[in-house]
Write a structure and sequence with these properties.
The structure holds two protein chains of two kinds. By secondary structure, chain A is α/β, with parallel strands linked by helices. In chain A, about 35% of the residues lie in helices and about 25% in strands. Chain A is elongated, with a radius of gyration of 39 Å. Chain A starts with a helix and ends with a helix. By secondary structure, chain B is of the alpha/beta class. Chain B has a seven-stranded parallel β-sheet with strand order 3-2-1-4-5-6-7. Chain B has a six-stranded parallel β-sheet with strand order 10-9-8-11-12-13, sandwiched between helices. Classes of the chains: A alpha/beta, B alpha/beta.
């Protein structure tokens, strides 16, 4: 019987350490005396307490033979000596530890012994409950379920566990490895537990609360490990980590250093950076020195790359020893202003700028920011029947105030109706709400920073002053409304019940329009399309399209205008457009929305298709339909099958579908004919007649030019520079660089009468629309026809765009702004060497461009080259290309 | 002092809950100061006794006992033909609208005099929404439970929805205040519950009563089962001490069965409801609260005001506002029978400790003295006083 008991109930020693715990020590001992496990030996080590702790201990153990007290002669200053003393003065097969201010649950010992017996692990760990929130400390994931026979090498999250007290150890395990608490340092648990995990073959975890950790929140004296404002504390912690690092090195466990680093960064260092703002100068200085040394000792920057944004950037800056940058980042994260503007963007991506003046490019990946911090406040809110207004102040933290513009919007989230606020000279923002529909209109800030849009829903807590306002008219009630998420809205509700019901139905309708097509309508669509395909072709119908319906422009436009004039046959014209309501088309043409059912109808029934890009994929072309492909420019970059990089199978298929459907192809010169035939593998008829769109450049009158100036609101006296960069498809955001260039040009143009027109590629045409530009810069990206702009342009700035070919016909100077010439050639490939043939200076920086703008004599030297260029590429352009095309096809 | 109009909004004005207790104490005090005080009660408990046993006008909004459910969407329920749900919701909306008009009418009797509305319980705020936009009305909302407790209840949704635009949102402790500030509340403040009486008794006399007391409704949340079991653990070691539990409720039979099972029929007594708490506190020694969720419990405050050392489960930040551990009482984890039992034993077996805790308890309760709390309320009124800017309203 006795033997059996020993086997299943081995002797457990609990080592209790106490130092000045007179308030709590009795509770700790009581929790041991009340344990359900009986084969228990308790060794209380009193670390020379100066209060009544020793007396309480002695009184408590009186008459309890399994309780033993050891009073140390002098205070050891930590936990290690008392615990080690306890280990050597106890005899149990198993060992547990308890601190004098904590306590065990009633059956902690029993559960731990049973688990250790059952698993035969080296040690077993149980849950710790902290009394500030009664939740499981520290990593829920570790302790949330039973884990048997695990090892830290397969389960590196165990690095996050550095508590020694919630575990039961086999004495044989401690002795085999001579594992004791390191004396002379604080944070002995980090070293002890870290070592224990590495030395153990097998560890088990039971998901049971074992240990209550007392957290005294309003304590006058914080416990040793909680005095973070004392520099010694940090020093001790780093010292403990260094000891563990050495251990890993010596025990061939350096493979796992990165996991340990991860824990150090996510847990230990975070505790100190959280408090950084409260440190004094002396502390800060020592802090940077110590952390810089330690980080550089055991890790490289890639230890940070897996961390969340805030930690990644903070630790990277600490690692680099960039104290100013680190401090600015802390200010930034806490919403304070930084000493210098630190945020910058490359395209959509934002970065934090280090103090180091060298280029940031190589380390940018460590300094990425997900979003910019927007600070805003609203003051002096006023709501009237017809007007909602307030003072709105918006700041982007650590970004220059001049780089962004702000737009205020009231938006109904359900119906998507929105109205825009007007910003007056002061900070006053005014909304005209006279005709606001019913519903909740939430106030939103849209910030445009160098082409990036940032959105912020206005929160009630950012409003200063009273704003509970309600206004009732005969029709509606308008009031300031705050929803449960604290968002601010203008709520408009109808007064009469009948109005309310009518509105509900109307809203349903509005909502429906926003939904995707219903099943019914898509079936109808399908049937209609099949019927439409069967209908015969109309001989006198012509369908036009330019740049996939984005514009009324280019050769299709001029062919259309010419056909309108002639009226020889009764043609019916159709223009396919993406936004038919926004584009005016002179003459009798009918506008149809691209990709609508109507569009499909005209696509199938028109005999002629006139287009400059590609529309063959929209339907199956019939054999009696005629497709005139005008194309949109003389080729410089490689195209079609010759594009750089390997075309994917379906891309080839698409290309084939397009080129096979062309019946006529317009070429502006013999060079192009050769290139097109090869690049498109096109064997159909080529009309080598010049571009119809260029006729206007030959035939225009001064009146035409003046009209265009008037349309753009530019006086005749103004000199005009047109800046038309092309698209970089490997970097669609490259146009953002233009923003800086524009400001530079705006500031450095000497002639104040000069106006710069900026025209982006049609794929990017709306990118500048919300940005405020300097007075001498005008955005003409949405102007329909670039040909008209040439007429009024004195100097053209371009890069690799085909506008150079058209513009050279006018015999006016061209500046080439090719800052990325090599990259462009490498990526896209060209048919000829631009450097040799370019009819103007090739500038590699915006300063060179400015030099030529400001020195017109220098620029005019290149006019000879323009002439040569024209005679090579524009010799067919005599102003009659359109009629040549028409006589060939529409006769 | 200028005569103020003050209206308390309660779920029910009668019944012996903590909220009613607080409201009645304050109301009595405000009346004593010659203010014009009224009660707007959403429901009433027919035939129950009330703390409002003095002269005060009471308006009941739903005398027939209608209890508004949480709002639901109509359309999805209509689609799935849950007509009963739809009808219930329509009824809720109709009644809410109707009763809001009634509330507006009630407040129109004040003309444009300044009115301070104290919404003691969150539920009542939904009927007061139109008052938000009245320039003469100041709304002070309260939540009489801890952040954690309200987070686990549907009241949290109501707080988020209705308490944003009110003038002041009063919590019981600064910890709860901080928690709500995390949800972007900027109108928060803290006021403690007041105690209507404070009475110093000789700790020796008090000890001689040898009685542990607890009060509250006999419901699961109050955790009396824990208290009875804790008492049972140590009953042999404190042979001449008894446990008295005052209150009534659905758990009564269960608790009685537990007492009998533990053979404590002669030691533990369920005494039923009591109106005069002070008198039963006078004849007791130690107050023990073993609740599972609370706010700033009146029962603890009142016990402390009579100089009773208190032991409580750590079920809300409010507990530590009342009990200063190891000075005037003890705190233990929720549902922890052993720790509560050991604390009771410690206090009972150390007479001197009991005396010092008892003295400290009385001293500490000054924090909740009515005169103090009254001052805080007047300073809130003052802070909110002064009318809203006329020009911003029409």
């Amino acid at each position: 019987m006795k033997v059996l008991q020993n086997k299943f109930m081995p002797k457990l020693s609990v080592v209790v350490i106490a130092y000045n715990n007179e308030l709590y020590i009795e509770e700790a001992l009581e929790s041991l005396a009340d344990q359900t496990y009986s084969n228990l030996e308790v060794v209380v080590v009193n670390d020379s307490s100066t209060d009544s702790t020793g007396i309480i201990i002695d009184k408590f153990i009186k008459g309890k033979p399994n309780f033993k007290a050891i009073h140390l002669k002098e205070n050891s200053g930590g936990c290690s000596v008392p615990r080690n003393t306890g280990i050597s003065n106890s005899t149990g097969e198993y060992i547990m530890f308890l601190d004098g201010d904590d306590w065990y649950t009633k059956d902690a010992c029993e559960k731990m012994v049973v688990a250790l017996n059952k698993t035969d692990s080296d040690f077993v760990a149980g849950q710790v409950i902290r009394t500030n929130n009664y939740e499981v400390w520290y990593y829920r994931q570790i302790y949330s379920r039973e884990r048997l026979h695990i090892n830290i090498r397969e389960f590196p999250i165990l690095f996050f566990d550095s508590l020694s007290v919630n575990k039961i150890y086999k004495r044989s395990f401690l002795n085999k490895h001579n594992l004791r608490f390191p004396e002379g340092i604080h944070y002995e648990d980090i070293v002890f537990t870290g070592k224990a995990y590495f030395l153990a073959d097998s560890v088990s975890i039971i998901p049971e609360p074992i240990y209550y950790w007392r957290v005294v929140e309003d304590a006058e004296v914080k416990s040793i490990t909680n005095q973070r404002y004392d520099f010694k504390n940090l020093k001790n912690r780093i010292e403990a980590h260094r000891q563990l690092d050495d251990f890993l090195k010596l025990n061939n466990a350096f493979l796992y250093q990165s996991h340990k680093n991860n824990k150090f960064l996510r847990h230990d260092l975070k505790l100190y950076t959280n408090d950084y703002l409260y440190y004094d100068e002396d502390y800060k200085e020592k802090f940077h020195k110590l952390i810089f040394d330690y980080l550089n000792e055991v890790m490289d920057p890639y230890a940070f790359i897996i961390l969340p944004e805030k930690e990644r950037i903070m630790y990277y800056l600490l690692f680099m020893g960039d104290r100013e940058g680190f401090e600015d980042f802390i200010y930034y994260k806490n919403g304070f202003s930084t000493k210098q503007d630190r945020l910058y963007n490359v395209g959509k991506q934002y970065y934090f700028q280090t103090t180091n003046s060298r280029s940031n490019i190589k380390c940018e990946k460590f300094l990425k920011l997900d979003k910019v911090e927007i600070n805003y406040r609203l003051e002096d809110i006023s709501l009237k029947e017809n007007e909602f207004s307030f003072d709105g102040i918006v700041e982007l933290n650590s970004i220059n105030q001049k780089e962004f513009t702000v737009l205020w919007i009231l938006k109904n989230r359900q119906t998507r109706e929105s109205i825009y606020g007007k910003q007056l000279k002061s900070n006053r923002v005014v909304f005209d709400i006279t005709s606001l529909n019913f519903g909740n209109f939430y106030l939103t800030i849209l910030i445009n920073h160098l082409g990036n849009t940032h959105k912020k829903i206005v929160k009630f807590s950012n409003i200063i002053g009273d704003c509970n306002i309600k206004i009732t008219s005969s029709v509606s009630t308008k009031r300031i409304f705050v929803n449960h998420k604290n968002s601010l809205a203008i709520q408009v509700t109808p007064v009469k019940l009948t109005k309310k019901v009518i509105w509900k139905f109307k809203r349903r309708k509005l909502l429906k329009n926003n939904d995707k097509a219903s099943i019914v309508s898509s079936i109808i669509n399908y049937i209609c399309k099949r019927i439409i395909e069967k209908l015969p072709v109309k001989k006198n119908w012509i369908l036009f399209e330019s740049h996939m319906g984005k514009q009324f422009s280019d050769s299709p436009k001029y062919i259309y205008l010419e056909l309108c004039k002639k009226k020889r046959r009764k043609y019916k014209f159709f223009w396919s457009l993406e936004q038919p309501d926004l584009i005016d088309i002179p003459g009798s043409a009918k506008k149809v929305k691209r990709n609508s059912l109507k569009h499909y109808y005209y696509l199938n029934r028109s005999k002629y298709w006139v287009d400059n890009q590609g529309m063959a994929h929209l339907t199956k072309k019939k054999s009696d339909q005629v497709y005139l492909q005008t194309w949109h420019g003389t080729p410089l970059k490689k195209m079609g099958y010759e594009q750089k990089g390997i075309l994917e199978k379906n891309e080839k298929k698409k290309l084939k579908l397009q080129t096979r459907s062309w019946d006529y192809f317009i070429s502006p010169n013999p060079y192009s004919t050769k290139v097109f035939k090869k690049a498109f593998r096109y064997s159909g008829e080529v009309l080598e007649v010049g571009y119809p769109r260029n006729d206007i450049l030959k035939n225009f009158s001064k009146m035409t030019a003046d009209n265009i100036r008037r349309k753009l609101d530019i006086a005749n006296a103004n000199k005009i520079i047109l800046f038309a960069p092309t698209f970089r498809d490997w970097e669609p955001d490259a146009f953002r660089k233009i923003y800086y260039d524009l400001y530079k040009i705006s500031q450095c143009i000497k002639d104040t009468n000069t106006i710069l027109l900026i025209r982006l590629h049609y794929l990017l045409s709306d990118k500048l629309s919300n940005i405020q530009l300097p007075y001498n810069i005008k955005n003409v990206s949405s102007y329909q026809d670039i040909q008209e702009l040439y007429l009024i342009t004195d100097i053209l700035i371009t890069d690799y765009s085909s506008v150079m070919f058209d513009f050279s016909i006018l015999n006016r100077p061209i500046i080439f702004y090719c800052y990325d010439l090599e990259e462009y050639i490498a990526r896209r490939g060209t048919y000829f060497n631009l450097v040799n043939k370019a009819p103007g200076p090739i500038c590699r920086s915006i300063n060179e461009v400015l030099y030529f703008i400001n020195n017109s004599e220098e620029l005019s030297k290149y006019l000879e080259d323009v002439k040569g260029f024209r005679s090579e590429f524009g010799m067919l352009e005599d102003g009659n290309a359109t009629s040549r095309v028409i006589s060939k096809i529409f006769n | 002092m200028h005569r103020k109009n003050i209206v308390f909004v309660l779920n029910e004005y009668n019944g012996l809950g903590g909220a009613q207790r607080v409201a009645s104490i304050l109301a009595k005090e405000f009346i004593k100061d010659k203010h014009n005080v009224a009660v707007l009660s959403i429901n009433e408990k027919k035939g129950e006794i009330s703390y409002f046993n003095f002269k005060i006008p009471v308006k009941v909004l739903h005398p027939n006992g209608y209890r508004a459910p949480m709002p639901i969407e109509i359309a999805p329920n209509l689609r799935s033909l849950k007509l009963r749900k739809v009808i219930k919701e329509l009824k809720r909306r109709y009644l809410l609208k109707k009763k809001r008009l009634e509330v507006e009418k009630f407040f129109s009797t004040y003309g444009d005099e300044e009115v301070f509305v104290i919404v003691v319980q969150v539920y009542g705020m939904q009927w007061l929404e139109p008052l938000l936009y009245k320039k003469n009305i100041r709304i002070i909302g309260q939540s009489h439970e801890s952040y954690k407790a309200s987070k686990n209840s549907f009241r949290f949704k109501r707080i988020l929805k209705y308490y944003r635009q009110i003038d002041k949102f009063l919590l019981l402790t600064s910890k709860d205040k901080q928690s709500f500030e995390m949800h972007d509340f900027t109108n928060t403040g803290v006021v403690y519950n007041p105690t209507a009486f404070r009475q110093k008794t000789d700790p020796r006399k008090r000890y001689k009563n040898k009685t542990i007391i607890s009060t509250g409704r006999l419901v699961d949340n109050k955790g009396f089962d824990i208290l009875i079991q804790a008492f049972s653990e140590i009953s042999q070691q404190i042979p001449d001490w008894n446990l008295f539990i005052y209150g009534d409720g659905p758990e009564k039979a269960n608790l009685q069965a537990l007492i009998e099972a533990l053979n404590l029929k002669n030691r533990v007594f369920l005494k039923g409801k009591v109106e005069d708490v002070k008198s039963v506190l006078t004849i007791s020694s130690i107050f023990v609260l073993t609740s599972r969720a609370e706010g700033l419990p009146m029962s603890l405050i009142e016990a402390q005001s009579c100089g009773l050392p208190c032991i409580s489960t750590d079920c809300a930040p409010g507990i530590r506002e009342i009990i200063k551990e190891y000075k005037n009482g003890y705190v233990g984890p929720v549902d922890d029978i052993q720790v509560i039992a050991r604390h009771m034993k410690r206090l009972i077996l150390n007479e001197n400790l009991f005396y010092s805790f008892s003295n400290n308890a009385y001293d500490h309760s000054a924090k909740f003295d009515l005169s103090n709390i009254r001052k805080q309320w007047y300073s809130i009124f003052e802070q909110l006083g002064g009318r809203k800017d006329e020009s911003t309203t029409e």
